[in-house]
Amino acid sequence: MEIREMRAFVTVADEGGLSAAARVMHISQSALSQTMRSLERQIGGQLLVRGPGGTHPTELGATLLDEARVLVERHDRLMSTLNRPAVPPERVRVGVPLELPPDLLPTAIAEVNATYPNTSVVLQHARSTAQLTALRAGELEVALVRDHPTDPSLDSVLAVEEAMGVVLTAARAEELADAGSVRLHRLRGMSWVSFARVDAPAWHDQVIATLRSHGVTDTYSASEEGRPVPREVKFAAVNGPRTFAFASPRWVDPLPDGLVWHPLAGDPLVRHTWAVWRADATERGLAALVAALDLTAR
């Protein structure tokens, strides 16, 4: 069990429900639900029960709640002592790509703030290639990138794994979708609305190779002079029966009128986002942020 799980359980009990607790903790309700389920699996029993007046601890939960409060209070006192003004403030600069899951960074930053309140996390948008350059130059502490670096001077953890779906006009989707999904080869004769290759060369080449292996050879670049393609431009480019775009399911709500999203049958395209940092870094706030971003720990 981790202190963040204890803190989440205490907050749900105090607030009387997952929704209220998620707002207090500045995380999504789905992320909080996953934390509660993980905790119950570790404890081996149900900790919370929903009743007319809200969510209440079970008998097992009430037993854990008393101990969890003590642990959280002791942890906070310890961290407060360690993070007194004698400990210099720490800044963690993070590079952020387009189309990142909306709840990823708020959840991770909240966990860092709870443990290291004198650490500030500063976000700045940049493409993957530019982030790695800034990281090596000491202008970023963490890079969130779509191409996995092989540089031995850098460490990384997998932060996001997303099976990509396709965005089409509603009329075109009626022709192509089968049982709620679209097979990649059915996009033959259409053009992919692509991002600039300079954003993430390896991921771009992977998409191109996968499309060609299914007979889809046309590409429509929505990028001007290699600039990033924002949401508005990307979806506006899918304006007819011969164009399509790829997007993750957590990034398409809401879609413009007339467009729909469908998963790709068999998940032929899976986009990964890695959190990368310098291997010689020693900052505590950075380590806490990386731990919060690590997909295998969530």
Structure in a nutshell:
This protein is of the alpha/beta class.
Fold and architecture overview:
- By secondary structure, the chain is α/β, with parallel strands linked by helices.
- It has ten helices and twelve strands.
- The strands form three sheets. Strands 4-3-5-12-6 form a five-stranded mixed beta sheet, with helices on both faces. The protein has a five-stranded mixed beta sheet with strand order 9-8-10-7-11. It has a two-stranded antiparallel sheet with strand order 1-2.
- Helix 5 packs antiparallel against helix 10.
- The model has no long low-confidence stretch (mean pLDDT 90).
List keywords for this structure.
298 residues, alpha/beta, 5-stranded mixed sheet, 10 helices, globular
Low-confidence stretches: none
Largest sheet, spatial ordering of strands: 4-3-5-12-6
How many helices? The count is 10
> What's the end-to-end separation, in Å?
12 Å
Mean pLDDT across all amino acids: 90
Q: Which percent range fits the helix content?
A: 25-40%
**Into which percentage range does the β-strand content fall?**
15-25%
Structural class designation: alpha/beta
Shape: globular
Output the helix-strand order.
Answer: HHHEEHEHEHEEEHEHEHEEEH
Structural Rg: 22 Å
Beta strand count? 12
Mind describing the biggest β-sheet? 5 strands, mixed
